[in-house]
Design a protein that fits this description.
Blueprint (H helix, E strand, L loop, with lengths): L3 H9 L3 H23 L2 H18 L9 H20 L31 H14 L2 H12 L4 H8 L3 H30 L1
Helix pairs in contact: 1-2, 2-3, 2-4, 2-6, 3-4, 4-7, 5-8, 6-8, 7-8
Amino acid sequence: MPDDANLLAALRERSPEAFRELFELYSDRLYRLALGLLRDENEAEDVVQDAFLRLFEKLDGFEGRSRLGTWLYRIVHNLSLDRLRAKRPLADLPDEDDALPLPVSFVDWSQIPEKQLTEAELARYLDQAIAALPEKLRAMFILSEVEGLPAKECAQILEISVSAAKVRLHRARLLLREQLSQAFAESTISRE
C-alpha cells in the first residue's frame, strides 16, 4: 500500500503514473462494492468510472482527513445509493440495536456432508443471501467482511457512527445466518 500523502501529492500534480496506481489499487474493490449494492454489472462499472471522475474533479478540495481509499469507497457508496434511490426509495433503517432479527431456523452445519453441498452451491447460497440483505446492511457487510475494512473506516465511508456500523454488521450477520440456515435446512431435507 503506497503512502497516501505521496500518492495524493502525485495525483495533484496530475501524474499519469499516480492515476494508474490509484486505479489499479482500488478499481476492483470499488467495483465489488458497487456490484454488491446495485447487483448490475453495467451500473457498477458506470459507478466506478463516475467515482474516479468525481475524485479527479474534486481532488484539489480533498483535505486528507481520511485515506484516499476511504474517500473513494464513500464516493462509490453514495453514487450507488443515488442510483438505487432513482429506482425506488430506500427504507430507513434505525441505527439503534432494538428489534434485532433472531434466527428461527437452526441447522447443525457440521452434520451436512461435504459431498452434499458443493463449493458452487455454498457460493450460490451465500451470494443470494448477501443480495437479499437491505442496502444499508449489504453495504456494511461488503465493506467489512468482503473488503476487510475496520469498523471505524466503514463508519467513515457510510457516514455513520462506529457503534451504528457495528450494529449494522451484527444485523447483517444475523440475517445472513437466518437465510443460510433456511437454505441449508431446505437443501438437507430435499436430499434425504
